[in-house]
Specification:
About 35% of the residues lie in helices and about 15% in strands. The protein is an alpha/beta fold. It has a seven-stranded mixed sheet, sandwiched between helices. A hairpin with a 5-residue loop joins strand 8 and strand 9. Helix 1 runs parallel beside helix 6 and helix 2 crosses helix 3.
Length: about 350
């Protein structure tokens, strides 16, 4: 913890640059020094919304938000006692059902939480959701599990989001038995005093030299618990440093080029599968993940052959017993993609010929 800025300028400046990257990606004015991961950041966003609107008590979660994020949010708010968590269904295109949401929003609505992209890889129309949410006086929160998408799509803040969070794992952090991750958290400057965690600020010393210090660290480690904005007592310093180095090396153009590579590869694979008779389950726009219709028995057979052909959504959504979510990135070579397409398309081709 850089409590002594005179001997911690390197750490503090790196954290300040991390905050700058997070604010730029999420399209909002201020960001904190990081959270534990994307899911806990989403839960902290709901708690922040509660501090901002203490007389409201209903949180609406899109059912297309990642189930782990929904579970963590429920765990965090359980101790509040008077906050109710409800869910909004998803529509046929894989997006949050806007009509159902509009029918539910009332004077007690506290916040609406969306995935962007959502668990199906579908890109939500954040602006369309933000309009009725704002009209009802509630806050709109977005949670991004794949932040590379933000290099191509409009950032949540530009679409009307009040708070935006993301998981930064794909920005240079290896998947090491499930972690660690790093949470990005951004909000509007007018709400900065309700933000959780640490914030590093820029200042000048007695000689007019540029420097960095911790500021607005209103957590219970520093002040009375009832006045704290959060009980998170650290930030993911090493992971945030790795993300900062990764984004610095790629730069704005490099990040967009990488996102474009992912987008084109995923859409090419989706088109090949469609041509081979393997249809997409949802027709909403997507970045580098999409859902195809394929029985779980076929997925199990491919796993036995050494091919993990996506993730069977039936584990989280019982009604989607024939759906696999597939992800295509720059790490997948042509031979890997050919094997995936052959494996998923073979049964469909046999059915068409039979």
């Amino acid at each position: 913890t850089p409590y002594q800025p005179e001997v911690s300028q390197g750490t503090l400046q790196a954290t300040f640059e991390f905050q700058t990257f997070a604010a730029l990606l999420l399209g909002l004015e201020v960001a904190n020094a990081s959270m534990y991961d994307g899911a806990s950041a989403a839960a902290e966003a709901v708690l922040m919304a509660r501090r901002m609107l203490p007389d409201r008590h209903t949180v609406w979660l899109s059912r297309a938000l990642h189930p782990h994020y929904r579970a963590v949010i429920r765990t965090y708010v359980r101790g509040l006692g008077d906050v109710v968590v409800r869910e909004v269904p998803f529509a046929a295109d894989g997006r949050t059902d806007l009509g159902a949401l509009e029918g539910h929003l009332g004077p007690d609505a506290l916040a609406v939480v969306l995935g962007q992209p959502n668990v199906f890889g579908v890109l939500e129309d954040v602006a369309a959701v933000a309009a009725p949410t704002g009209a009802a006086g509630a806050l709109i929160i977005t949670a991004t599990a794949e932040p590379l998408a933000l290099a191509m799509v409009r950032p949540p803040g530009a679409c009307g989001a009040d708070i935006a969070v993301a998981e930064g794992q794909s920005f240079g952090l290896p998947v090491s038995y499930g972690g660690p991750g790093v949470g990005l958290f951004a909000a509007r400057e007018r709400d900065v005093r309700s933000m959780p965690g640490r914030i590093v600020g820029e200042t000048v010393d007695a000689h007019g030299r540029r420097g960095f210090v911790l500021t607005l660290a209103t957590r219970e480690q520093h002040i009375r618990r009832e006045r704290a904005t959060s009980n998170i007592c650290t930030n993911q310093g090493l992971c945030a440093l790795a993300v900062t180095a990764y984004l610095s090396l790629l730069g704005r153009q490099g990040l967009r080029a990488l996102a474009t590579t992912n987008y084109r590869a995923a859409h090419a694979v989706a088109a090949r599968l469609e041509a081979a008779g393997v249809a997409r389950r949802f027709d909403g726009p997507f970045f580098n993940e999409f859902v195809v219709q394929a029985p779980i028995a076929r997925w199990e057979a491919l796993v036995r052959d050494g091919v993990v052909a996506g993730f069977p959504l039936v584990r989280w959504y019982p009604e989607l017993d024939d759906a696999l979510v597939v992800c295509v990135t720059e790490m997948h070579g042509a031979a890997d993609i050919d094997r995936l397409v052959r494996g998923l398309a073979a049964p469909a081709a046999r059915a068409a010929s039979g």
